[in-house]
Amino acid sequence: MKIYTFANTSGKKITHFNSNFIMTKILNSDREMHIGCLYIDRDGVVGYHKAIAPQLFLVVEGEGEVRGKEDVYVKVKKGDAVFWEKDEWHETLTNFGLTAMVIEGDGLDPSRFMTSKEDD
Questions:
Q1: How far apart are CA 3 and CA 74, in angstroms?
Q2: What is the DSSP letter of 112?
Q3: Which CATH superfamily is domain 2-119 in?
Q4: Cα distance between residue 44 and residue 93, in whole Å
């Protein structure tokens, strides 16, 4: 398991076409991908299971805890991105509720665009 950030501080300011916003790249791919949104209610859980494909879990609201195969939980919050490899065991818990975008598919490599929180 590796934790990244996609917060606005890791993005690039865009001013083309009189624009004024920050964009954080997440992925480029020509492979088949599945993208979904998870809404996990208060005291919710995504049970301990193996990832069926490389998986990027982007927290867009709320907070919770995640773990990989080790029984060590890491706190995550809005702006954090968790990456699990194919067949990696993982789990997500939240006491307050959490919304996340999930991208699954071969060829995911968040290190191409995102900064690892371990590098901070």
A1: 9
A2: G
A3: Jelly Rolls (2.60.120.10)
A4: 6
